[in-house]
Amino acid sequence: MWDGFTGERIDVRVDERCGAYIMIEPARISPVEELLRQNNIPFKLEDGASSCRGTPEAAVIEFGKDADLEKIQRVLDSAA
Questions:
Q1: Which residues contact 1 (CB under 8 A, 6 or more apart)?
Q2: Phi/psi at 29 (nearest 5 deg)?
Q3: How far is CA 66 from the centre of its chain?
Q4: Which of 6, 24, 26, 68 lies 20 to 30 A from 55 at CA?
Q5: Which contacts of 38-43 are long-range, i.e. CB under 8 A and separated by 24 or more positions?
Q6: Three-state DSSP class for 73?
C-alpha cells in the first residue's frame, strides 16, 4: 500500500511505548480498516490527541506490542 502524502510504501513502524503502528492519510482510514478486518489483524484507530504520533494531517493505526509485523506488512503490501 502506498502513502498518498509521500508516494512511498506504508511501512509498519515500532514505538517503544506503543508498539507497532502505521500512519496514513485520514481519507484512507476506511479501506485500511476493512483490509485489516478481512485479514483478522487487531488494531486500534487513534485520534490525534491520544495517539503516539498522530497529527490532524495523519491518522495512526496502532497494532500493539505483540503484533505480527510481518503479517501486517504483507497485508499492506498486497493492497494497491
A1: 9, 10, 32, 35, 76, 77, 79, 80
A2: -55, -50
A3: 15
A4: 68
A5: 39/71, 39/75, 41/67, 41/68, 41/71, 41/72, 41/75, 42/67
A6: helix
The one-letter code for the residue type at 4 is: G
pLDDT per residue, tens digit, the chain (80 aa), is: 655 555 667 889 998 888 999 988 888 889 999 999 999 999 999 865 555 555 557 789 999 999 999 999 999 999 86
User: Residue 6 is placed in which grid cell?
Assistant: 509521500
Radius of gyration of the chain (CA): 11
The C-alpha cell that represents 77 in the structure block: 503490501
Residue 60 near residue 53, CB atoms below 8 Å: yes
